[in-house]
Amino acid sequence: MRALKNILVSGGAGFIGCNFIRFLFSKKDFSGRIINLDALSYAGNMANLSDIETQFGGDRYFFEHGNICDRPFVERVFKEYDIDTVVHFAAESHVDRSILGPQAFIETNVVGTWTLLDSARCAWKNTDNSLREDVLFHHISTDEVYGSLTETGYFTEKTPYDPRSPYSASKASSDHFALAYYHTYGLPVTLSNCSNNYGPYQFPEKLVPLMILNMIDGKRLPVYGDGKNIRDWLYVEDHNAAVWLIMEKGKAGDTYNIGGENEWENIKLLYTLIDIVADKIKADPQKIKNTITFVQDRLGHDRRYAIDCSKIKNNLGWKRTVNFKEGLERTVEWYCANHPWIENIRTGEYQRWIEKNYSQRSKK
Ligand code: NAD
Ligand code: TYD
Questions:
Q1: What's the CA gap between 9 and 263, in Å, rounded?
Q2: Nearest Cα residue to atom 22 of ligand 2
Q3: Does the annotation count 185 as an active-site position?
Q4: Which structural domains are found in the chain, ordered by start?
């Protein structure tokens, strides 16, 4: 039986991680502790969890400010909280940034993942050098490791890896290390590779929140290339329910693909989003459509991602619950209702706020 009691969530101040922590605390049958370990990079935001800090802080919720590449820090966290489970979200996550500067991706996604894996292996050793059996390291990855599809076909768990951006190459490398630790040392590892998430708290550099905020501000909507690249979209809550199911019941050494079975051409997604935002802010949809601007394509832009998620559906009984229109409406609603969050990110006030509030705590 897995303990799932003292759970280290890396990257818990980011988009998916903060939604995961909120999801776990909303579960009636979860009574464990969550230790959120996050470096608070540009994408990490303490305000994402201020309500959780107020409700559970110091009792079932703990924040540890630091870098997953910092071995002594990571080891101290494992020891201090008697960590029995890791769910590893922390990453550099944006493809465009990886094209401009791959180094941070190699540091965090490759070296950082290895540091966490190796710290777990050392922390979870029994006195006879065997490994504890009630522990789990769940590694979060992306469908982008499988490369790019043409018009047909789907990524399955058996699709050979073919990463094509510095981001996906770094995630592929981290996946290989995670599985290598399972095969070599017997570390209980599970993996999930998911499609494009959307929902509240996503940093507005990614397609959906960037477009929503640009629409609200009357700014142009930059579409890369011909706008016909295809992504599969998954509401973040559905993703997190799948992650938890894998943590509870997934087989060690196994990979699970998670997808929304919801493929959209970027331009068609944009038209749908325009209608939702126009309706919400009482604007003329045609006027917003006129701001669509096709811009220079992303280098090496993957054409299509699509996921076959029958394994997690059949083996673990997961299914998507939020349809795309409903998920987009909820997301638009959230961005319209959270101006202070957005302003903090935009003005740099947020960065100063971190320095003021957390520099003391990081020197523990
Ligand atoms: P995000 O960029 O919103 O958040 C990443 C978090 O990791 C931030 O809080 C950041 O401060 C933290 N972090 C970064 N470097 C760190 C370091 N060296 N040490 C400690 N913390 C660090 O990312 P996200 O969208 O929430 O993605 C989470 C995970 O899911 C990533 O592993 C990503 O590759 C994967 N994923 C995301 C998507 C998606 O659509 N967003 C899709 C597939 C897979
Ligand atoms: P993104 O949200 O960056 O996710 P990923 O690259 O990991 O799939 O981009 C989603 C799609 O939207 C991708 O095909 C690139 C495209 N895109 C634009 O057309 N314009 C933009 O401003 C952004 C950020 C993305």
A1: 29
A2: 222
A3: no
A4: 6-361 (3.40.50.720)
167 is catalytic: yes
User: pLDDT tens digits for 237-265?
Assistant: 999 999 999 999 999 999 999 999 999 99
Least confident of 42-56, 128-142, 335-349: 335-349
With 70 as the cut, is the pLDDT of residue 42 above it?
A: yes
H/E run at residue 142 = strand 136-142
Q: Which of 167, 181, 256, 335 is an active site residue?
A: 167
| pLDDT over 50 at 363, yes or no | no
If one counts every other C-beta atom within 10 angstroms of the C-beta of residue 306, the result is: 20
Percent of the chain scoring above 70 in pLDDT:
95
Helix axis angle, 113-123 relative to 166-185, nearest 10°?
A: 20
Q: Where are the beta strands (DSSP E) in 195-337?
A: 196-198, 221-224, 230-235, 255-258, 263-265, 292-295
Q: Residues with Cβ < 8 Å from 156, sequence gap 6 or more?
A: 257, 308, 311
Q: What is the DSSP string of 170-185?
A: HHHHHHHHHHHHHHHH
pLDDT at 157: 98
Residue closest to 148 by CA, chosen among 330, 252, 298: 298
pLDDT at 232: 98
Residue whose C-alpha is closest to residue 134's, from 82, 80, 90, 76 = 82
* Residues facing 45 on adjacent strands: none
What's CA 25's distance to the chain center, in Å? 18
Query: Residue 194's closest CA among 237, 140, 153?
Result: 140
Listed in sequence order, the residues at least 6 apart from 254 whose beta carbon sits closer than 8 Å to its beta carbon are: 157, 190, 191
Amino acid at 250: G
Q: Whose CA is nearest to atom 5 of ligand 1?
A: 14
Known catalytic residue: 271? Answer: no
C-alpha to C-alpha distance for 32 and 119, rounded to whole angstroms: 21
C-alpha dist (Å) from residue 1 to 84, 153, 213, 246: 12, 37, 45, 13
